[in-house]
Predict the 3D structure of the following.
Amino acid sequence: MAELNIRNVHMHFSGVVALDGVTFDVKEGEIFSLIGPNGSGKSTLFNCINGFNRPQKGTIKFNNVNLLKKRPHQVITNGIARTFQNIQNVPFMTILDNILLGAHKRINFQSTVKGWINREQRQKEEAMGLEILDFLGIANYEQKYMAGQPFGIQKLTEIARALVAKPKLILLDEPAAGMNEQETVEIAKIISEIREDLGITVLVVEHDMNLVMSISDRICVLDSGKILAIGQPEEVKNHPDVIKAFLGDSADA
Ligand SMILES: Nc1ncnc2c1ncn2[C@@H]1O[C@H](COP(=O)(O)OP(=O)(O)OP(=O)(O)O)[C@@H](O)[C@H]1O
Ligand SMILES: [Mg+2]
């Protein structure tokens, strides 16, 4: 089972406790959302999963492989790709080339050193990149340069780059941030299709509650690095601690 197991993860930066004993599992095929106020540790947890941060305590396993022994590119090879809260596209490259940066796990070291992958491999990668653009509904953008593209296209390029790595699990850090209502509906549909049509498990951080409630199988609420509640959308929405944390004392009235 390609399950993600997070156990008792503690991560602090000098005096700042970002994660304080986080434990949960993401099951194969789930859409699992991580929500919580600004600074509650959501992106830090993503950074622990993909190898950017090393937690001081705890374990993170995917498919029984200990991720805390892996570097970020090895985490991708083990089937986990991610997007970033702050868009990480290269403005002077085309959208297709930006996406193919995500294919580097299949580009062998020798050919990379020689300058570029062989033509046959390049054609295969391009065909896959185009398929993914098509899947995301932006196939006609392949040769356009990244610079100056609308925000929505930039966000979809981030998702496409992660998909090109052919992950079993995708981590999406605020995919709908900065998007308008129509674009948010579109993103919700895409996330569902990533699971339904591509068979990829999804772990998503998002602030848009309509989106989270509509797509998630389960939701975990983080607050100051601790889990406040975890469960199905209805359970979490009605959980007294969640209501209190999000609505403050007015919830007691
Ligand atoms: N590299 C770092 N160095 C120092 N402090 C950090 C670092 N990364 C995160 N933090 C701190 O850890 C805490 C959690 O930050 P994190 O970015 O994980 O929150 P978040 O839940 O993703 O918030 P947001 O919703 O604003 O994206 C914050 O107090 C943040 O300032
Ligand atoms: Mg964040």
User: Anything to note?
Assistant: The two ends are 45 Å apart (CA to CA). The pocket of magnesium ion (ligand 2) is lined by residues 42-43, 85 (CB under 6 Å).
